[in-house]
Amino acid sequence: MFIKNNENSSGFPLVRMRRNRIKDFSRRLISENVLTTNDLIQPLFVTKGKFENSNIDSMPGIKRHSLSSIISEAKEIYSLGIPAIALFPFIDETLKDEIGSEALNENNIICEAIKAIKNEVPKLGVICDVALDPYTNHGHDGIIINHEVDNDETLKVLSKQAINQVNSGCDIIAPSDMMDGRVKTIRLSLDENGFNNTPILSYSAKYSSVLYGPFRDALGSKVLKSKLDGKKSYQMDPSNSKEALREIQLDIDEGADMIMIKPALSYLDIIKSASENFNIPVFAYQVSGEYSMIKAAAEKKWIDESKAINESLISIKRSGASGILTYFAKEVAKNINK
Ligand code: PBG
Hints:
The chain is α/β, with parallel strands linked by helices. The protein has one domain: Aldolase class I (TIM Barrel, Alpha-Beta Barrel), CATH 3.20.20. The chain contains 11 helices and 12 strands. The longest helix is centred in the middle third of the chain and has 17 residues. It starts with about 25 loop residues before the first helix and ends with a helix. The structure holds ligand PBG.
């Protein structure tokens, strides 16, 4: 639909779109979207043991922090004005099992990291994933029964995992597992345990994407090529959009406080429909593969890194995201603050 600016105008040469664009001051005045540090969430990896402070080959510039390094990282992130971090664990193979038991250990690395960060940087928001993949030896987000990830058995463990994390001081619970009914189950169990003020940021529309590859390297959680065909029995098919809106509606009905679309750049249409159709904060996750693609092209000097980062993030904002999880958060905040 076109809206006529002036009924009497017959367009060019009376109308010249470039007039507003010619000077820098004017371009600044007419800019419709702006990225601020308030829009950013920095995902961070934490580990204990032999991989402390190790680099992730497929994610240049990102490492698996030790406890002490994650504290200094959190301090820096807070001082840059970034409101929150999202924490992910890398755990030793020997701690992984079929049912992801380590997720429920109240002294696991995530719990230790949350406590340490909340102790040292109490005002920095800490978001934690709810899903079993960092802790299972098969890499799936849930519990396998009869060769399939079992929805309802998984829900029982996920709600315990959520409680384990909030007991340590986690501020926002972010279920990323894509089981049916997880938001409601987790909401009820948070409320029963006295955490009725802890928000749920649901990964509502999480697509089965090749772009999570580098993240799985970071966590050491490659899903074994098995009969289960990756994570397609729970993550969404990239060809679908109506289904995403249905997922979001269900999560809102179940009590989600914020929702997320993931990945971001290939799913801007979904972010846009989500923000237009629902009155709830919409977040987008610029995932590991999106990060690595920009890094790799920039390393080859095929694109300008910082311009590519800014363009990708402003597109996500333009499509309607209230906030963005991005591995570039720290770098971008430094530039914004310059
Ligand atoms: C765990 C989880 C994944 C990501 C965030 N939480 C991976 C997956 O589902 O396999 C991916 C994030 C990224 O690629 O940056 N369920």
